[in-house]
Give the backbone structure.
Amino acid sequence: MSTTTTPHKKIANHEKVMPWQAGYGYTQALQVKDTVYLAGQLSHDMQGNLVAPAPLDAQGRPTDFSSMEAQMRQSYRNAAALLAGFGATFDDVVEENLFVLDIGASYAVAQKVRAEFYGNDQPACASNLIGVSQLALPGQLIEVTFRAVLKDA
């Protein structure tokens, strides 16, 4: 993880800059006072490759949503790494927003994956499951944003 600090913010990014960061001016996470904001986390590995990409039809739309669980789990792993850079864990998360291409596919796996990371079946955070028509990368099924409040900031 690489971090920089300005007078009002601490900014963190995964060690390897993802291909889309430079073109978009994307910051993975930042801290202002006691609050950490994580930008949309995808299911990419640390080389920038999408983990478990969905197969696409001729128009570039996903044809199968069965990799939702694998993508969700990797998105949460990426978030865990960023949170750790601020001394935070999922215990500090107060809000998450899951943007998904298929509500049913995500709903079927969300409790299982979330319980793995939060450590219980009903995490103490506000959670929103939002269906969208498109995400940033072909084959991407999910993107998750997080807000955490640090105990000792």
Observations:
- The helical segments are 19-24, 68-84, 103-118.
- Residues 2-149 form a domain with the 60s Ribosomal Protein L30; Chain: A; fold (CATH 3.30.1330.40).
- The chain is about 25% helix and 25% strand.
